[in-house]
Design brief:
Blueprint (H helix, E strand, L loop, with lengths): L3 H7 L1 H36 L3 E3 L6 H7 L1 H8 L16 E2 H4 L2 H5 L10 E2 L6 H7 L25 H9 L1 H5 L16 H4 L12 H9 L9 H10 L6 E3 L8 E3 L8 H10 L5 E2 L6 E2 L6 H5 L3 H4 L4 H5 L2 E4 L2 E4 L10 H4 L8 H38 L4 H22 L4 H4 L1 H28 L14 H7 L4 H14 L1 H12 L4 E3 L3
Antiparallel strand pairs: 1-10, 2-3, 4-5, 6-7, 8-9
Helix pairs in contact: 1-2, 3-4, 18-19, 18-21, 19-21
Bound molecules: heme C (HEC) (4 copies).
Length: 506
């Protein structure tokens, strides 16, 4: 081949072609470089702090100035427009859907009101609205302690930092009403200086210590579940640790299973309330979501809560964590299809199938429990002795604990269908045993016919059956919301105006 200079001399157009080709390539390279620079400056912009605030800054909007994408997606937890077959962000009146629960909780505040949750954005609003916290007006205290605020938002670590956890828990619920005003947010899960995930709730750290584990050595992937385990877990209020304080604890010293926690509670003869019909010493499971998740196949394969409920998403070339914590079924492509090749329809069907099957058995267990409570009531009426009832009441306690353990976490039947199904099955067995004993006792007491199943086909009928005066309860609540809550809000506004926030750029 001839040298290039000779070729160009023979065919001058070849020179021009080479010239324009080179210019074109240089131009395209320039475009690419400028696009990269732009994206980089965008990335730098996203992480350049705009404001400086304290470690315990509770206001999510202030953090949001530095992290607009995370904040914008966090704010989406205010949406209430997604409903799956059993869950989602629409508030569901669970007592209306399933009035048997009213009877199961007779004598306990859950029989007054129990809703399927909406989302993190509503944590403070919903605890004010729910009938369980009562109507503390005219100096009348709430029936609940301040401990109930613990999972509601970033004002909790702020106040705990000021006065310590025990003093935080001390007193009835209305006394810290003006303090806890910001819903679940940044400071609950993040360290303000490093933005690392952090555990802000002492109960979880202490429970790990009692198990001989140091939570600060948890891996990054474990932390992506442990931040949720601060709240989505079973807990109870311990009265023995500090005089006059209902101290938040996790009953995990013997393990995380329904049986291990049941033994823990039995050994300390703990009960949440005495059942109004059967007089059984009852346990209320809170929401052992983390405990049950740990028994499932996803946990076994190292999939974290955040992998499904806070997947990575992309916007303007920027990959970030979707802070719209919600049902993953509203976003199957980001939540499931990063790992699974199946179509959306198939994955949703997989979830529903597991839920349907568990709920079928759960409903059966509920019916057996309603019958056991009503039959025990009859036995008392016919003159049964404490001694005759003791064993039976212990069975009712255990069977209902297992029902609640399995049912209270709304994700359980997907997170770990086999374990959830197993716990319900053991509950059915124990409930039936209690009813065999009851049948024997009732016949000894001269009654050998079926005790009729009560008409509890609606929430209103069930509440009337256990003797609740809902009209008065609702009217008192409305007065509290109209008169007391605005005062709390004003007080909080005044306090927040004194927090130090430093603007770095104008
Ligand atoms: C319920 C816990 C939780 C809350 C509340 C929360 N985050 Fe996060 N955040 C996470 C998790 C989990 C990650 C992923 C961290 C990882 O894997 O390193 C994350 C990641 C981040 C990151 C790192 C970049 C990214 O997007 O992955 C930033 C910045 C951030 N969050 C800001 C915020 C801000 C601002 C708020 C309040 C509006 C907030 N977070 C509230 C759990 C939370
Ligand atoms: C500070 C306590 C707290 C932390 C931390 C927390 N949650 Fe929640 N979560 C709540 C409360 C309280 C609600 C109910 C809020 C409402 O609707 O009033 C809730 C509601 C939810 C809901 C929707 C409501 C439902 O049950 O249908 C989902 C999903 C959820 N949380 C998942 C998570 C995940 C995943 C994490 C960890 C990344 C997490 N949460 C961390 C307290 C917390
Ligand atoms: C980070 C990866 C990952 C994500 C995200 C994920 N999965 Fe999985 N999933 C797995 C692995 C791994 C297994 C175990 C299968 C195996 O090892 O063969 C599994 C198993 C399953 C199974 C069968 C196990 C059972 O319970 O019977 C179903 C169903 C399933 N996933 C559905 C889902 C759905 C629905 C989502 C989204 C809400 C999801 N997965 C999100 C990794 C993932
Ligand atoms: C493999 C994916 C996956 C993992 C991991 C996972 N979840 Fe879920 N979660 C789901 C699915 C699917 C549902 C059912 C949603 C529905 O029915 O709409 C669900 C439901 C829930 C709900 C009820 C949501 C609602 O809309 O009412 C909560 C709360 C929850 N999960 C919390 C957690 C917590 C806390 C963890 C970690 C301990 C966790 N999840 C781990 C997939 C997952």
């Amino acid at each position: 081949m001839k040298p290039i200079s000779e070729q160009i001399r023979q065919k001058p157009w070849l020179g021009w072609l080479l010239f324009f080709l080179t210019a074109g390539v240089v131009f395209l390279l320039g475009l690419l470089a400028s696009s990269i620079m732009e994206r980089r400056s965008e990335a730098v912009f996203a992480f350049t702090p705009q404001v400086e605030y304290g470690q315990f800054e509770p206001r999510n909007a202030i953090w949001g100035e530095n992290f607009p994408r995370e904040y914008q997606s966090y704010k989406q937890t205010s949406r209430t427009d997604f409903q799956s077959k059993y869950n989602g962000s629409v508030m569901i009146d669970m007592l209306e859907v399933d009035p048997r629960m009213v009877v199961l909780w007779a004598g306990y505040s859950f029989s007054k009101g129990y809703n399927q949750a909406r989302g993190h954005y509503y944590a403070v609003e919903d605890i004010r609205n729910i009938l369980r916290t009562g109507a503390p007006v005219d100096g009348k205290p709430s029936p609940m302690p301040n401990t109930c605020w613990t999972c509601k938002g970033p004002d909790v670590p702020r106040v705990m930092n000021e006065i310590g956890p025990a003093e935080f828990y001390r007193g009835t619920w209305e006394s810290k009403g003006p303090e806890i005003v910001n819903a679940i947010g940044c400071a609950d899960c993040h360290d303000a200086r490093t933005m690392n995930l952090r555990i802000s709730r002492p109960a979880l750290i202490e429970a790990y210590e009692r198990l001989g584990k140091d939570i600060s050595t948890a891996s990054h992937q474990e932390m992506r579940s442990l931040v949720c385990a601060q709240c989505h877990v079973e807990y109870y209020f311990n009265l023995e640790k500090f005089e006059g304080i209902e101290y938040l604890m996790h009953p995990w010293d013997n393990g995380f299973s329904a049986e291990a926690m049941e033994t823990y509670y039995d050994n300390m003869e703990f009960s949440d309330w005495t059942h109004a019909l059967s007089r059984a010493p009852m346990l209320k499971a809170q929401h052992p979501g983390y405990e049950i998740y740990k028994t499932g196949v996803h946990a076994a394969r190292g999939v974290s809560c955040a992998d499904c409920h806070m997947p990575y998403i992309s916007e303007g070339g920027q990959k970030f964590t979707d802070h719209h914590v919600q049902s993953p079924l509203n976003n199957v492509s980001a939540s499931c299809q990063v790992c699974h090749r199946e179509e959306t329809d198939q994955l949703v069907k997989d979830v529903y199938e597991r839920q349907d099957r568990i709920i079928q058995n759960r409903d059966k267990l509920e019916e057996l429990l309603v019958r056991a409570h009503v039959e025990a009531k009859k036995a008392w009426e016919l003159g049964a002795s404490e001694q005759q009832m003791k064993d039976i009441l212990q069975d009712i306690r255990h069977a209902q604990w297992r029902w609640d353990y399995a049912a209270a976490g709304h994700g359980n039947s997907f997170h770990s269908p086999v374990e959830t199904g197993r716990v319900i099955t053991t509950g059915i067995t124990i409930a039936q045993e209690s009813r065999i004993k009851l049948a024997r006792l009732l016949s000894e007491l001269g009654h050998n016919r079926e005790i009729p199943y009560p008409d509890i086909s609606t929430k209103a009928k069930a509440q009337a059956f256990i003797g609740l005066d809902m009209k008065t309860l609702n009217a008192e609540k409305q007065r509290f919301l109209d008169e007391v809550v605005p005062i709390w809000e004003k007080e909080a506004e005044k306090r927040e105006a004194t927090y130090k926030v430093h603007t770095l750029f104008d």
